[in-house]
Design goal:
- By secondary structure, the protein is an alpha+beta fold.
- The chain folds into two domains: about 1-245, no CATH class; about 300-620, YerB-like fold, CATH 3.50.90.10.
- Helices cover about 25% and strands about 20% of the residues.
- The strands form seven sheets. Strands 7, 8, 9, 11, 12, 15, 21, 24, 25, 26 and 27 form an eleven-stranded mixed sheet that branches. Strands 16, 17, 18, 19, 20 and 28 form a six-stranded antiparallel sheet that branches.
- Helix 8 (about 160-170) crosses helix 9 (about 175-185) and helix 10 packs across helix 12.
- The radius of gyration is 26 Å and the shape is elongated.
- The two termini are about 45 Å apart.
Length: about 625
């Protein structure tokens, strides 16, 4: 019964992340502040009716959060449904402070209903929702709780002094609580000064100047080309937002208690993570789960110009444009119900690593992606995949993650596109409006993205789609001149990874006719849904890796930076024992034979299985 209840809760939370309030649009309208940039203004500036291409250089931070989720049917509308606001529930307080209003009773009733469904457990979602009820800009709110310095629990002492404000409004009398109430409910919206030390208009001017400078320098603005309009250079059109930013109202901080990761309604039972503080996470990381000591490179990156037209991934000939395009790193499931995946045969490098719940997951490195209309399905990321991904300077495509990713996934050097909050319990959801779901499979196995959606998200986020100088490293694999038949290697025409990946039972069968290993999953051929072909690889690497379980929920950590572990290299129907080394976040993983020579891969695609140390492949 407990497992059934947990499954129901996962379904409920997944629904919340997508449409969240099960109410009619008529009863749940959020009115849009018309001082914001209108749809018609955006159309005129950029010459398109597609909000997916609307550049953030023309939008305030708050507006972009709204428009990134806006469907075509909302163009020109002055209302958004409560469903739309809830897709950005972490930004809801910011939306409200900037002139959006919603029906208080609808929100209040929903909070009560949600808490009842959670059997009284006040999780992070409930806490955020209920805190929105205390927002001073909700219409129809109950009487606020006001003291001389706080309004509904928010401390305004940094921007408010009762004596100073009474001198400006003698008609209000001398009661400090009454003065603060008027300041919050009326004065802030009018841009009034609440004390002698903080001038919101001077603060706004400085913030706007910083925004304008950032917009002028952003890659997304430069990408618009000649004739582009000047950016707006506005942090917001609402004085309330400047006050909110200065007071730290919109900083999510660390959520406490038992919270749900984004990858809900999964076939595993391990969806929760106990996250008590940043310190707790850091201490677990220090116990050997990951090596976070490598300093980040500079985050202001220029374009790297790759002169070679030999693929760094496969050694095959490619066009110059292809050689200079950043690859995708796409999180894909191994779940039986999720097979086959769309676009997986485009993976020049395919990683498979274990996760919690006894199930593995895949990360496909796809350099040739710009024509794909459907990629996925897509699942959440884990911290160790990020370290594997970084050495390829990819654009990471995922559907959320877990708390252990915080500080890495949202660091300035990472370029990720996520269907929900990037580390599960927090962060942004960059490019979330570009994901779509299909009706041919049940959630969570039906989330996808297209190449055009990725390109739009990159434009919105200011991501370079060409290789970045300072991040991209062209010296990865060492390829053989001709064919490497692994002289002296053991025969290995069949590779069984069921001890490493017991759920997927991944395995390979060698075909001597073309020199490739064909991958199987769940006892059958692993295929691409686009072309129906079984995926195959010229090289198979098994990388034994130190690991640990991070918490009672089963989340794992892998030591991806190391120089002491071994593994196996399979190619052309043979196998040798190897050692591997990775010394930095953006440094490539290098593989060596027992004599200390770097191994020579054969031209073609490579599968890399990250094995928990102590679990070995079987081959014959």
């Amino acid at each position: 019964m407990k497992h059934f209840r947990n499954d129901i809760l996962r379904v409920i939370i997944l629904g919340l992340c997508l449409s969240l309030f099960f109410v009619t649009a008529a009863a749940a309208a959020v009115t849009r502040n018309t001082r914001f940039t209108s749809a018609s203004e955006m159309m005129q500036k950029l010459g398109t009716t597609d909000p997916g291409t609307w550049n953030p250089s023309y939008l305030t931070e708050v507006e972009n959060a709204y428009w990134s989720f806006a469907p075509q049917s909302y163009l020109g509308s002055k209302e958004i449904t409560l469903d739309m606001a809830k897709n950005n529930y972490r930004n809801l307080e910011m939306l409200l402070d900037n002139g959006y209003t919603l029906d208080y009773n609808t929100l209040s009733s929903y909070c009560e209903e949600y808490l009842e469904k959670k059997n009284g457990e006040k999780d992070s979602f409930y806490n955020i929702m209920s805190s929105c009820l205390n927002n001073p800009y909700l219409l129809g709110r109950p009487e606020a709780v006001v003291t001389g310095t706080t309004y509904n629990g928010r401390d305004y002492s940094k921007v408010f002094d009762a004596a100073f404000y009474q001198a400006k409004h003698p008609e209000l009398g001398g009661d400090s609580a009454a003065l603060l109430r008027y300041f919050v409910e009326t004065g802030i919206g009018n841009g009034e000064q609440g004390n002698a030390s903080f001038d919101v208009k001077a603060y706004a001017a400085a913030e706007d100047a910083a925004v304008l400078n950032a917009q002028n320098q952003s890659a997304s603005y430069r990408a618009l080309g000649a004739g582009k309009s000047a950016p707006l250079g506005k942090y917001s059109y609402s004085w309330a937002n400047y006050y909110g930013k200065y007071l730290g109202h919109y900083t999510p901080g660390v959520l406490t208690g038992s919270v749900k990761g984004s990858d809900v309604n999964t076939s595993t039972a391990a969806d929760e993570v106990k996250n008590s503080s940043d310190t707790d996470i850091d201490s677990m990381m220090a116990d050997g789960a990951e090596d976070n000591s490598t300093p980040l490179p500079k985050t202001v990156a220029g374009v790297y110009k790759e002169g070679s037209t030999k693929s760094v991934y496969t050694n095959e000939s490619v066009t110059s444009a292809q050689a200079n395009t950043r690859p995708l790193a796409v999180m894909m499931p191994t779940d039986r119900a999720a097979q086959p995946s769309y676009g997986i045969s485009r993976a020049d490098i395919l990683y498979e690593i274990m996760e919690e719940g006894g199930i593995s997951r895949q990360m496909a490195i796809i350099p040739n992606w710009t024509d794909l209309s459907r990629i996925g399905n897509l699942r959440s990321c884990r911290l160790y995949y990020i370290y594997a991904a970084k050495e390829w300077d990819p654009i990471l495509i995922h559907f959320g993650g877990v708390a252990y990713m915080k500080g890495v996934i949202n660091a300035p050097d990472m370029n990720n596109i996520s269907g929900t909050y990037e580390y599960g319990v927090g962060g942004k959801a960059p490019g979330a409006g570009q994901f779509f779901r299909t009706s041919d499979r049940q959630a969570p196995h039906n989330a996808y993205i297209s190449a055009s959606g990725i390109q739009k998200a990159c434009m919105q986020q200011g991501y370079l789609t060409n290789l970045r100088s300072g991040f991209y490293n062209p010296k990865h694999f060492s390829f053989a001149d001709g064919v490497n038949d692994l002289p002296g290697g053991e025969s290995a025409t069949s590779i069984d990874l069921s001890e490493i990946f017991p759920y997927s039972k991944s395995s390979f069968t060698y075909n001597a006719a073309d020199g490739l290993y064909y991958k199987n999953i769940h006892g059958g051929a692993q295929k691409d849904a686009i072309n129906g072909r079984q995926i195959s690889f010229a090289n198979v690497i098994i990388q034994n890796t130190k690991w640990s379980q991070l918490d009672k929920k089963g989340y794992l950590g892998f030591t991806m930076l190391d120089s002491t572990e071994d593994g196996y290299f399979f190619t052309r129907g043979k196998c040798i024992h190897i050692h591997w080394k990775k010394t930095g976040d953006y440094s490539p993983t290098k593989y060596y034979d027992d004599a200390g020579n770097e191994i020579k891969l054969n031209t073609g695609k490579t599968y890399i299985g990250i094995a928990q140390k102590g679990r070995n492949p079987k081959y014959s």
